[in-house]
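User: Structure tokens for both sequences below?

Assistant:
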Amino acid sequence: MNTPGAPHAPVVVTAELDGRLSRWLWLVKWILVIPHWIVLFFLWIAFFVVAVIAFFAVLFTERFPRGLFDFNLGVLRWSWRVSYYSYGALGTDRYPPFSLGPEPGYPARLDIVYPERLSRSLVLVKWWLLAVPHYLVIAFFTGGMQVHWWSGGLITLLTLIAGFAVAFTDRYPRDLFALIVGLNRWVLRVAAYAGLMTDAYPPFRLDQGGHEPAAGAAR
């Protein structure tokens, strides 16, 4: 599904900042999300297994089986919601649902347009060779060579700064929020590309803010 703000974007990441955030809840969210981390550990194992199956499916049929695509999209959605609630953004105090679905009412959302056809030649190289420059960039964002987890690096540092700002000023700096979401958007675009879910090469561009830029503004 596409959004009005980005009609041609295959990966659409949106986020809405809570109008009022608890000053101190963020200090214990690492405890609150432990059940999610346990479930996501196994879901990400399944994600990689599905990606391997999809690799061969694309290679021989040029299609990513829709049911497998929806499952991996669900894993990315679940991960983004947990990250947004916890130390990937601290943008909401609404506890993330245990769900692979779109959850349109949750303030952190992710949509990826289902590709009817994928390139057989690209599937051989995009997840390792073509994505390497992006891996180097997001390693700085996340604190490691990973596209699926928000466990350190620049994103976590900026999020902790935002947490202290909320604690002492009762407000989340809007510019900082826009930057943090932009960094996460870059990570999720790369995750979708490396996960073989799109042939659209992720732009080397930091699109900040809670919503995708309009098509004209993104150029």
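Moving on to the next sequence.
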Amino acid sequence: MRMDHVSYASESDGLAATTERIATALGVDAVRGGVHPRFGTRNMIIPLTDHHYVEIVECLNHPASDKAPFGQAVKARSAAGGGWMGWCVAVEDLAPFEERLGRSAVPGNRKFPDGQELVWQQIGIKGLIADPQVPYMLKWEGDPALHPSQARPSSVRLSSLTIAGSAERVTEWLGEPVEAPLNDVAVEWIAPRGTPGIMSVTFETATGPVTI
């Protein structure tokens, strides 16, 4: 179990403009992602060190975005003005989460221009919608070289998260201590009785720390 990425829902001016603001703040160039046909969404990627990345995502005008929980989550966060939507943990085995949550993981995919395809299974988006402090879980499949963090070399590191919520709640959700997937990513837990979710993310960049 390890932290994989953080997701940011597009603001009112759309995916390109939102991505440009974040990439400029970090002093890097973003990488074009692609369409998630099963979810009715599309994304842009900012690769980071340590096998992490930032996903900036928006909904398409497509029925899938209303039906798929991931599309619903993106649409709701963008409708509220956009911003940090959630964080994701990569695991080797989704079966314990499927058993605990009482439902099956769903497949995800997006294709590259050269025909290669990024594929994965994910679960937990409904939990994130209900309680945005908790991560969702995914299992990557296929070629590891296609992992979004490998799209371009990066010197930007995700150093810390500020999350409204409690470590105890997320530990309960994951089934093991929340520190396990975070490794050297620090978390400041605030407002445990307030509205939950990621409040900010801090990165180490070439010009010093940047908080978004």
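User: Anything stand out in the second?

Assistant: The chain has a mean pLDDT of 94.
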